[in-house]
Amino acid sequence: MGGKGLSFNPVRLEKTVSRNGEVAQSKSHSFDTGAAWQNFALQALLLGWHTHGMGGFDREKARTDLKVPDDFAIEAVIAIGRQGTSRLYQPNCRKGNFPIPASL
């Protein structure tokens, strides 16, 4: 993968219907999603990428746009990309957006 400003948004899905057709949502799905997200974020950082996990998004729009079947729950969306500079932000969004020193 390469290219300036390249980014993508992986989505965490969970199968909610068992093979016999009954609803069988895992009781630990949120824990599993959190553990997977943490490891994903740490590995991305080690490879020079930056991530941002999001729980506040339009799940129905994501389901429609990504053609997610009804028997899957959409758990999270993750933004991942290369860190840019504040020049890339609209002027009204620049305040508060700054790189964190690597020494922290």
Briefly say what this structure is:
By secondary structure, this protein is α+β, with helices and mostly antiparallel strands.
Structural shape: elongated
Give the DSSP E fraction (strand runs of 2 or more residues): 15-25%
Secondary structure: helix percent: 25-40%
Unreliable parts:
none
Got a strand count? 4
Distance between the termini: 27 Å
Radius of gyration: 17 Å
Q: Structural class, please?
A: alpha+beta
Reported for the largest beta sheet, the result is: 4 strands, antiparallel
Order of H and E elements: EEHEHE
Topology (elements, then pairings):
Blueprint: E1 7-8, E2 11-15, H1 29-46, E3 50-54, H2 59-66, E4 72-81
Features:
104 residues, alpha+beta, 4-stranded antiparallel sheet, 2 helices
Folded structure, characterized:
- The protein is of the alpha+beta class and 104 residues long.
- Helices cover 25% and strands 21% of the residues.
- The two termini are 27 Å apart.
